[in-house]
Amino acid sequence: GRVVEIAFQEGQRVTRGQVLVRLDDSVQKADLERARANLTLSKSKYERARDLRAQGFISSQAKDEAENNLKVAQADVELAAARLAKTEVKASFGGIIGLRSVSIGDYVLSGGEAAAMAIVDAVVRLLPGALGDPDSPKDESFSDGQLEYPQYTRPREFRGMPVPDVLVGGNHAE
């Protein structure tokens, strides 16, 4: 996820369980709300099915399906809550926090310059006013974990040679 807050300073005393880093949680919050709404509906449908079965108006299978849907909805809420909880990094023990380190993940590069630029850009964009519009990070191409539209390789020609169609076509499955 995208880091939206680093909630500590180097050398600061922290307590066990204190939030140190927050990731963008907007998608996870929406997923949890959707799961809760589906759970409410599934509970209602199950209670109705249970009553109708007791009166002999529906089959046992229909009641069992409603009960299963309720269990799936309960599991979906638990899963969404677990995903939301993973958007906060908390101190596993109390003490004085040391260096703040940010990693862009595993990369194989010929030098560290590209990785350093990516980290500097990721940190600078968290500064107030760095992007001009405070709502800009909410609508970036990766804000929901996916690219917003096909990203194509350019130019079509490199050093006098044509770039293969598979690279400029945008079909990343090929």
Keywords:
two-stranded antiparallel sheet, three-stranded antiparallel beta sheet, alpha+beta, 7 strands, flat, 174 residues, 4 helices
Model description:
This protein has 174 residues and is α+β, with helices and mostly antiparallel strands. The chain is built from four helices and seven strands. It has helices at residues 26-54, 60-85, 113-124, 165-168, and strands at 3-6, 13-14, 19-23, 88-90, 95-96, 157-158, 161-162. Strands 1-3-4 form a three-stranded antiparallel beta sheet, with no helix packed on it. A two-stranded antiparallel ribbon has the order 2-5. Helix 1 (26-54) packs antiparallel against helix 2 (60-85). The protein is flat, with a radius of gyration of 24 Å. The model has no long low-confidence stretch (mean pLDDT 82).
Q: How would the blueprint of this fold be written?
A:
Layout: E1 3-6, E2 13-14, E3 19-23, H1 26-54, H2 60-85, E4 88-90, E5 95-96, H3 113-124, E6 157-158, E7 161-162, H4 165-168
Antiparallel strand pairs: 1-3, 2-5, 3-4, 6-7
Helix pairs in contact: 1-2
**Class computed from helices, strands and strand pairing:** alpha+beta
Order of helices and strands: EEEHHEEHEEH
Relative helix content: 40-55%
Main beta-sheet annotation? 3 strands, antiparallel
Q: Low-confidence parts lasting 5 or more residues at pLDDT below 50?
A: none
How many DSSP H or I helices? 4
Query: CA-to-CA gap between the ends?
Result: 26 Å
The spatial strand order of the largest sheet comes to 1-3-4
Beta strand count: 7
DSSP strand (E) fraction? Answer: 5-15%
* Average residue-wise pLDDT: 82
Radius of gyration: 24 Å
Gross geometry: flat
